[in-house]
Amino acid sequence: xxxxxxxxxxxxxxxxxxxxxxxxxxxxxxxxxxxxxxxxxxxxxxxxxxxxxxxxxxxxxxxxxxxxxxxxxxxxxxxxxxxxxxxxxxxxxxxxxxxxxxxxxxxxxxxxxxxxxxxxxxxxxxxxxxxxxxxxxxxxxxxxxxxxxxxxxxxxxxxxxxxxxxxxxxxxxxxxxxxxxxxxxxxxxxxxxxxxx
Length: 197
Fold this sequence. Notes:
The chain is an alpha/beta fold. The chain has helices spanning 2-8, 22-27, 44-53, 83-100, 111-120, 153-157, 170-180, and strands spanning 14-20, 56-64, 69-76, 104-107, 128-130, 148-149, 161-164, 186-191, 194-196. α5 (111-120) links the parallel β4 (104-107) and β5 (128-130). The two termini are 43 Å apart.
């Protein structure tokens, strides 16, 4: 029943479920509180687990009416993104960009770049990998034969697409690339909640 309720309600809807307190009934031997119109009885823990299994977020659970009832306040959580689906969509996005552009560079040699290059398996042919961190200069990304280097006007101008993986420094990367550009370059930035151009 809760799964059906979850499917038909909008995100962030808040609800209240009130049921007899099965823990009190069983704990105190209150056989006279077992009603034929209730098919199931719940403890606070079992009611919370049921709500969570149906993908609801438990806001609070309280006992009411002399502890005879449980009141469960819940919210429908926003549907999360399937990690596998997100990964495949991102990789498809990069492969499509690679078909449109021939001279591609990456900006940012951190963990996001490493993860994406690993997922691509060495298929993305980069001309340059830029990073402002001098400790990364001269090193390599996974599956990439190009050394990480500092951004400079000439190297940036050699590309028609720059993929910005270093989202923490996105503004800095865009400002620097704009100052260095001699020809128009398209930039795509990776964000925690998706891609942006």
